[in-house]
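User: Please run a holo structure prediction.
Assistant: Happy to. Please share the sequence and the ligand.
User: Here you go; the ligand is pyridoxal-5'-phosphate.
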Amino acid sequence: MKNSFLDNLNKGVLGLEPYEPGLPLEHTQKKLGLSKMIKLASNENPLGASPKALAVIQKHIELNRYPDGNAYDLKQNISKKYEVDLNQITIGNGSNDLIEFVSRCFLGEGTNAIYSQHGFAIYPLAIKATGAEPIKAKAKNWGHDLDLMLNLVDKNTKIVFIASPNNPTGTVKNLKEIKDFLSNISDDIIVFLDQAYFEYIEGSEFDIPFSLIKEYPNLVISRSFSKAHGLAALRLGFCISNPDLADYLNRVRQPFNVNSLALSSGIVAIFDKDHIEESIKINESGMKKIKLILEKFNFEYINSFGNFISFDAKQDSDKAFQFFLERGIILRSLKVYEMPQHLRVSIGTEEEMDFFLQILEEYEKDLLSK
Ligand SMILES: *Cc1c(COP(=O)(O)O)cnc(C)c1O
């Protein structure tokens, strides 16, 4: 029998490809019958969640009550920590939620939004779902080509998505590049700057201050609690924007889009300096180690400012992915990102990195023997 209602789907929704998450650890391990398996596929924090957040969750959460729909306490703390006004803040169910709010506010049939080749996969999904046209700008040296993105703007363009650092390439833009872009783009177009990996960036030239929004009211900057704060499972993010825009973002948001556990955790995790510093430290040493080994075996990698690194596996990335999987490591094949030979590996604990490096050595030997 034919489900005739499918003919009535929004055209944009009809054209969507499902997002493919990293393989789930336990299920995959059971399926393959391996005694040991690690997951380095989703850029999660190997240190775990902020201990302060864990403590607060175990204390007193009333599951029978609706969460605070206005996220009063979390907004207070975000405002305090980042010196932004309360009316500039929008809280999201993960920062993915914020990408959807902005898309729903500005996009629809007859409009378009620009994103970069090898850019975060959620942008084209969110754009298409509204019926708008996603315009992909060819990347330059794996990163966003901001000049090209500017040139692709036409009268129907409503949003440009920029990720810095970008996932899966780890490339960044410095303050000057972002400022030049903002100065040259028409101020009726939203520039959405995704900074999910902000905490990991090394180098002050890449700091994009929220105060820039006063000068460029069309700029939106998003942050996530999923990476350095280790709260990916709870789904929590926020964005800072011009207050007039925040007002509308908060209107399209579901009234209780963020749950109580996420809110209570975010309130303390944002000030859990020890955990953030320790997370950055583990990342730095893991990154250093992995780069050395990739160089030793002549694997070309893309210099990354996030908590992951993507490298050329010297053969079809699905095959390479399979090699690691069968030996107990879940990585990410980057075929869907138009990177047919690249694998992305998240930086794990020291122990996880040693295991990865051991399998990488086996992988290299296997390549040479062919
Ligand atoms: C992981 C990631 C996010 C975070 O998404 P959440 O919904 O906050 O978990 C956002 N942008 C990019 C580029 C990412 O890689």
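DSSP finds 14 helices and 13 strands in the chain.
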